[in-house]
Amino acid sequence: MKKLKLILFGASLFMLASCGSKAPDETESTPTAPAAVEQVEDTDTTETTDNTDTAESTDPADIDAVLAKIEDLRNKAIESGAKDFAPGILDELDETLASIKERAAKGEDVTADLARLSMLYDALTSYSKACVLKNKIDDMELAQLDQKDYDAGVLYLNECDELFEEEELSAVKLQDASKKAYASLNTVYFVAFKKLAKDARAAAFEAKRDADSVKAGVSQKERYNEAVEIFKNGDSSYAMQNPERACDLYIEAGELFDELYEDVSEKRAAAQAAIDAAKAKVAESEKAALQADKDLPITDENLAGIEDEDAVLLEEDEYDDPEEAEADIAETFEEEVINAVVDYLEAK
User: Fold this and answer.
1) Residue 328 gets which letter from DSSP?
2) Could you tell me which residues come within 8 angstroms of residue 329 by beta carbon, excluding any fewer than 6 positions away?
3) Rounded CA separation 219/347 (Å)
4) N or C: which end of the chain has fewer CB within 10 A?
5) Tens digit of pLDDT for each residue in 147-163?
6) % pLDDT > 90, the chain
């Protein structure tokens, strides 16, 4: 469980190194973006985009709404890590956006430019997300679990890097390559975490088995039920096709079961030590009594300080029912100690 936890801890690290053929560095020169951003790329009329509403001729009255959608695409690219993985390209696209806004304010038709820019921002989002996945996969050494898709993803990322270097950046090609890169690497990540989730579940179940062996569900009922609920949530996440979340939940449940086992086992050990000590004292008392009988055996003769068997020392008490006055005392000292320890554990 600890080993798996260390492995998964690496998955949470957000590597800021670029993926693809070369990692961007603040001291390095950034990839060259299209110089003439106002110039509309000469693409085929069949060029498509996920944002089809910007691909059509836009009514000037709706230009603000279209620009708002472009801003949303830009924010998504930044949230995905574009500033870390393609800062130069992001800057160029931002300059293009500013220029389009100025031209739109003058009444120019910027419909085609907006369509192209929306594709580029969208492609930059896919590229950045693919880079994040690649870094996680590399850090966790998961590529071997789906080498074919990993190699394909790296190939598409390299294709994106090459497109960044071209004088005239093709929005269609970049969008296609970036989406394929993300899809391939996401498949690797999904397959890898399905395996990790299965391993984590097996470990958590074994931890539960240990907790059950010491009756943790009785002595630590609330925490035990909490661990069981977390385990079940892991199953739900796995069924909902979220193996990464499932893996985290299984690990959490397993750790809680481990804590329960160790806690209850420690208390049981302390209780057993008390029982063993009590047994030892009983044995010593019995041994001392036997030795006393040997050293000073009791005879039929009267002993100093001992009265006759039928001597009346005090006036006889009268009870309505003598049995009702009997105290509830354990038959032997040893049994009394064991029962007291059990009562103590149950109270805890």
Assistant:
1) -
2) 336
3) 9
4) C
5) 999 999 999 999 999 99
6) 50
Cα-Cα-Cα-Cα torsion 244, 245, 247, 249, nearest 10 degrees, comes to 170
Q: Say if CB 321 and CB 261 are below 8 A apart.
A: no
What pLDDT digit, counting tens, does each position of 265-293 carry?
Answer: 887 666 666 676 667 667 666 666 666 66
- Of 142, 250, 239, nearest to 187 by C-alpha is 142
The pLDDT of residue 325 is 30
Residue 200, H or E segment: helix 171-213
Q: What is the pTM of this model?
A: 0.58
Round to whole Å and give the CA distance between 252 and 295. Answer: 64
Can you spell out the DSSP letters for 150-178? HHHHHHHHHHHHHHHHSSS--HHHHHHHH
Query: What single string gives the DSSP state of each residue in 266-279?
Result: HHHHHHHHHHHHHH
Q: Which residues contact 142 (CB under 8 A, 6 or more apart)?
A: 136, 188, 189, 192
Token pair of 211, please? 């907790």
